[in-house]
Design a protein that fits this description.
- A four-stranded antiparallel beta sheet has the order 2-3-1-4.
- The chain has three domains: about 70 residues, no CATH class; about 120 residues, no CATH class; about 140 residues.
- The chain has 16 helices and four strands.
- The protein is an alpha+beta fold.
Length: about 400
């Protein structure tokens, strides 16, 4: 046997061309093969994973802190009321008021963020509402009792979380947002209450107007009956039967069976009752018209300044001016009652604390760095596999040579 034929397999494998080495690797187990691949390209995987992770960790660490503060209000709210409150606060006209107020306070940066927020998630990252306990999930149910209980359930606490970039900014932003929530947003509730009051008063006035016609016809009918009864002669036997007492369940419906003199008295009594009813309803109708006129002026004041930064104290001052200029005692009493009612609508926003603490928002640097490292490792491993696959395609494995 020659010296060339006595070479070891290891020497043969190391001196074999790339195509032969690729053919040998094809026979290896998959796990061992990928382990060899990762070890071969370990430097590329480590550098490609650690460097981006360290860069991301440095960016997160040196990124400016964000701050948050939470205001809590003791305000019972049903699910429907909470949804209406959110729509009112996040409406374009109300957000425009907050933006204008922030610019007045010199917080133009936060005002720009609020103005350019195009999605609900972007708005919630700046100002977010929540209730406790959370409103129960409305499930599809055929049980009316369960559905009624769900609709009547109320949250007891309302929280407003405000997030900003600095502690100084948080002070001005918190003041603007809470002022809007406590003094501007109730104007919408007052407007809603005024509209409902106008509708209710119009219905009451319409009922009086509808009944006045029928009562007037009834009064004229009774007057005609009294004239006819007065023209009838007295019966001779009436005096002899004056000691007889007749009892009726409904005298008003049975007075035609009474003696003639008592019939006249019954009809006259009914006429007096109808006249008093018409007079009292006429006074009520006149009062309702005055209330409608007053509520119309109050609603016009709100509608005319709704797009401006109009507050509840300003509206109460307008109510006081109206009361001072009013000369009728009934309307003065109505305005006094309405002022107390309006003040009650604003007292629902009772803060649980006047000066909440401003907290820095945690960056979670370590957690995010670990997650980034895992992602970059996966990406670099995939890149290494692709590179190895590309090399094997350029150096395909040759078929084994026959012996001899």
């Amino acid at each position: 046997m020659t010296e060339s034929q006595q070479t070891t397999p290891a020497t043969t494998a190391s001196n074999s061309p790339p195509s032969d080495r690729a053919a040998q690797r094809l026979g290896e187990p998959g796990l061992l093969r990928y382990g060899r691949l990762l070890w071969k390209r370990r430097l590329m995987i480590l550098v490609g994973s650690l460097l981006p992770t360290l860069g991301l960790a440095c960016i997160i660490h040196f990124w400016p802190l964000r701050y948050t503060t939470t205001f809590v209000y003791e305000r019972p709210l049903m699910e429907s009321e909470y949804n209406v409150l959110l729509r009112r606060f996040y409406s374009s006209e109300n957000l425009d008021k907050i933006v204008a107020r922030l610019r007045e306070k010199g917080v133009a940066g936060y005002a720009l963020k609020l103005e350019t927020a195009q999605t609900e998630q972007a708005l919630h990252r700046l100002i977010r509402f929540s209730v406790s306990p959370a409103c129960p999930t409305r499930l599809q149910t055929t049980d009316p009792t369960t559905s009624e209980e769900i609709s009547k359930s109320k949250a007891q606490l309302l929280s407003i979380a405000i997030t900003g970039d600095s502690e100084d900014e948080m002070g001005a932003v918190s003041e603007a947002v809470t002022d809007n929530f406590e003094r501007v947003l109730p104007i919408y509730e007052i407007r809603k209450d005024l509209i409902e009051s106008i509708q209710e008063t119009e219905e009451l006035a319409a009922e009086i107007a509808d009944s006045r016609f029928s009562q007037t016809i009834e009064l004229q009918k009774e007057k005609t009956r009294l004239q006819q009864l007065s023209s009838l002669p007295e019966a001779p036997s009436e005096g002899a039967q004056s000691n007889v007492v007749l009892q009726f369940t409904e005298v008003a419906e049975s007075h035609e069976f009474l003696p003639l003199a008592l019939q006249r008295d019954a009809v006259q009594s009914k006429i007096i009752d109808l006249q008093e009813t018409l007079n009292s309803e006429e006074e009520m109708y006149s009062y309702y018209l005055k209330v409608l006129a007053m509520n119309g002026r109050l609603l016009g004041e709100i509608e005319g300044r709704l797009l401006l930064y109009y507050t509840v104290p300003e509206f109460l001052a307008f109510l006081d001016e109206q009361m001072q200029a009013c000369n009728e005692n009934t309307m003065v009493d109505y305005l006094k009652s309405y002022i107390r009612k309006t003040q009650g609508l604003t007292l629902v926003n009772t803060r649980a604390g006047e000066q909440p603490i401003v907290y820095p928002v945690s960056k979670h640097t370590l957690k995010r760095a670990v997650l980034a490292l895992i992602v970059f490792l996966m990406i670099m491993t995939f890149v290494a596999v692709l590179q190895e696959h590309g090399q094997e395609r350029h150096h395909p494995a040759s078929p084994p040579k026959p012996a001899g």
